[in-house]
Amino acid sequence: MIYVMSDIHGMYDKYIEMMDLIDLKETDTLYILGDIIDRGVNSMKILQDMMKRSNVFGIFGNHELMMADCFNIIMQEITNEFLDSFDEEKLMKLSDWMNNGAFQTIQEFKKLSKEEQKDIIEYLMEFTAYEEVEVKGRYYLLVHAGLGDFSEEKSLDEYDVNDFVWKRPDWDIPYFTDPNKFVVVGHTPTLGINGKPEIFYKNNFIAIDCGACFENGTLACLCLDTMEEFYV
Questions:
Q1: Where exactly are the structural domains of the chain?
Q2: Which terminal residue of the chain has fewer beta carbons within 10 Å of its beta carbon, N or C?
Q3: In 41-154, which residue ranges form alpha helices assigned H by DSSP?
Q4: Which of 34, 33, 29 is nearest to 3 (CA)?
Q5: What is the pLDDT of residues 68-81, one digit of tens each?
Q6: Is this model's pTM higher than 0.90 or not?
Q7: Could you report the per-residue pLDDT of 115-165, keeping only the tens digit for each?
């Protein structure tokens, strides 16, 4: 079975509850479509659990990309030499990340040993920008946010990583004319699409960010083989 999940945002307890609920077996595969970190209080615990599972694969979200942009900052001790090299570009990247809920993630990261920190960084850099899977004759593009500046004539290699992690689809305009091509995304909470913490389907888009980090949201998971939905 192939499962997809997205936008866990540090909600470790929900993540573990979901893993128990779907009963992920060694022969199954789980793709997590980014935004595993930030906002919640246990982002590192989720990443460390994922690292132990050979059948769980991460896809970059905008939050992982913001963290990657700040690796050189959070790995260093604050010294006079470091502050002297702290230019405006670094400050802007850190500010953007902090404004998107990075404080808890940085606090967690700093509590790890240097070896654990290096392991986290190496693991995050193994994430892909997107994945393509075929299940029962249906083609699924798995991507965090969507395809910015979309054209059906463009190959996926022609897109920039920011197109994958920031650009939201227009739900009224399908990407592909092929009825067997689907795009599975996170990034946009379904609470903001139709007001419901449920997986949203329209024009071959499947939106699975159901607002796990919000009080009235849920963590969702979808099995692509059966289209069974799971919520915690």
A1: 2-231
A2: N
A3: 43-51, 62-69, 71-74, 80-84, 88-98, 103-111, 114-124
A4: 29
A5: 988 877 776 544 55
A6: yes
A7: 999 999 999 999 999 999 999 999 999 999 999 999 989 999 999 999 999
